[in-house]
Prior knowledge:
The protein contains 15 helices and 9 strands. By secondary structure, it is of the alpha+beta class. It starts with a helix and ends with a helix. The chain is 44% helix and 11% strand. Strand 5, helix 13 and strand 6 form a beta-alpha-beta unit.
Amino acid sequence: AMPAAVSLFKMARQAAPASQDLLWAAAVSLVGYHELGHIGKLEYDRLAWEELKEPLDRTDDFTLSSAPPSAVPSTDPGTDPSQGMASDDESSIPTARRRLPRSSAALGKQKLKFEAEFRLMLYKHWTLEESMLHSSYFYGALELHRDKGIRSLKNFFATAGISPSAYKQLYSGMPMPIRKTIQKKFSEHGKAYGLSKEKMFLQQFVRDLGPLGDAKQALWLQEISSSDAAHILFGVLGTVPASLSGTRVDLLPQVEGGRRDTAAINEIEREAMKENFWRAFDTILCKDPAALEAGIKEAVEVAKAVQSLGRFIKDTKAMNKSSRFLWCKVEQPPHLFRHHLSVRRLAVWLLHVLFIHRPKSEEKERPMMVIVRDAVRETYLCVGATPNRLSDDRDEFGHLFRSVLRADRTLKYRYDFFDKSCIEIACDDFDRFWEILTDTA
C-alpha cells in the first residue's frame, strides 16, 4: 500500500517543479503509515529512498510554496471563494479559517534532510525520560511496565552519562554536550540493555524550520522529524469534541420523546472532522509556531492515554484468544478513544509491546483486535492490527469483516473508514457480529 500523499507527490512532479512542502507532506504520510502498522520496515525504506529521497537528491532547489494556489482557499474579505478552490463542495472550507503567516521569519530558509533519527516520540519537544516511557520500542524492549524495567532504564541513563537533571527536563534545557552526543551514547551503550541500533533509529526526513524555531525555543522548534510530525498529525486529526463525551450522555442532543438525536450528533462530528483536517493542514506545513505547540500538546495527550490504557489491558490480563487472533474489549474507554485513529494507535502499541519488541518472547506474533464501546453512538468500534511479517496485499481483518457482512445482511454497521481494518457495529447487533466473526476466523 502506498499513502495517498506519496502518490500525489509523484503526480505533482510530473506536472510542475517539485515543492518542498509536497515532499514534506509525503514524507510525514509515509512515516505515519509505518507508525500505524500499514506498511513494514522494508517497504517503508524502499518508498522513502526511491520515491522521496532520490527526487530530493536530483532536485537542485525545491520551491517553498505552501501549495498550488488553487488548492488553498483565500480568506481575504471580498474575495470570491470559488476563484481559489479546486473542490465543488464549498461548504467544506471554513469561512473564517485562520490565514497562514506570511512573514519573512515564517517563510525563511527551511530545508529538508534525510538522516537517521531516533524512534523516540517527540524527544526534542518533550523530556527524554517521558519520550522513552511513551515510545513502543523502548517501552517493550526495556519492559518499562515492570519495576525491573524502570531500574534498567535508570541504569542505562547512568551508564550513558545522562544525569537525572538532564533526562527529566525538556530537550532544549539539556546540556549542550549531551544534546550533541545523545545518539552516540544510545548507540554505544544500548546493546548492553537489549536495545538494537537498527530499531532505535529510522531513516527519515527532518525539516529545519530556521527562524521559526525562535518563537518557541523551549519546545525546540528549530527542527522537526517526519515521525514527530506524524504523531502531531494523529493527535490533531483524532480530536473529538468534548460536548460528545461518553461521560455526559445525558447532555447529548435529543429529539422529542427523549431519544438521542443521531443526526445532530453525526453533524457535530462531521464539522469537527472538517475543522480537524484544516488544523492538521495548517500545522503540518510548519509555518505557525502556535499551531505546532498546540499539536505537540495533543500528541502528548494521546501518547499518555495510549500508554496508560495499554498498561491497564496488560496488567488486568484483558487480552483473550480466538483461533486466528487475539482480542480485548474495553467497555468504558477514555474520551480520546472515540476516534478510530486513537484506537488504531492502541492496537499497534499492544502488538509492539506484547510481541514484536518484547525481549525473548516465547509466544508467536498474532493479529490483534481492540474493541471499544462508544457510549455516544451506541456502537462498538473494532480495530485490527496485523504483524507486518504476516500481512500481504489482502488486509486480514478487512477480509474477515466483509465475510461477516455478507453472511448477515441485517447487521447495523458503519464501514466507511479509509482503514478497512476498522468497523463500527451497533451495540444491539454486536453479539451476532461476534459469533459470525469467530466462526469465520
